[in-house]
Design a protein that fits this description.
Layout (H helix, E strand, L loop, with lengths): L2 E8 L5 H11 L2 E12 L5 E12 L1 H18 L11 E6 L5 E9 L2 H15 L8
Antiparallel strand pairs: 1-3, 1-5, 2-3, 4-5
Length: about 130
Amino acid sequence: MAFSAFISSALPTNSVEDVQRVFTQLNLGVIEKIDTKDYEGRDGRPLRKFWVHFSTSTESGQKFHARLASNEARQKNGEMVQGSEIPRIIYNTRRDGSDMYWYVYHCKTPAERAAEHEARIASTAPNVRIEM
């Protein structure tokens, strides 16, 4: 089963290769591709976003995806999802012993986004007909 994950806020020093390495070590599935975008945080600091797209998933990947999807559904229903409920991926440890981590969220796959787009287009298409 394909799924996608979203890292909303990473350091600009984190690279696609770093994300690939970490997610490969977690054995969540086969990574199809990773998209990234640099942006400026609220405080003006440079940050980076990552979208990790899996073509297949392992059993642990399916559980991970279910947790991400559950959090998203809860948020859509107006529930507060606390920080401790959002999966964190610890990718390094600082010299002082504190963890470096990414919060990870559910993300629609490119195929899911394309299907939603097509459905929106179909639902807003004009009702064209000839009456005689």
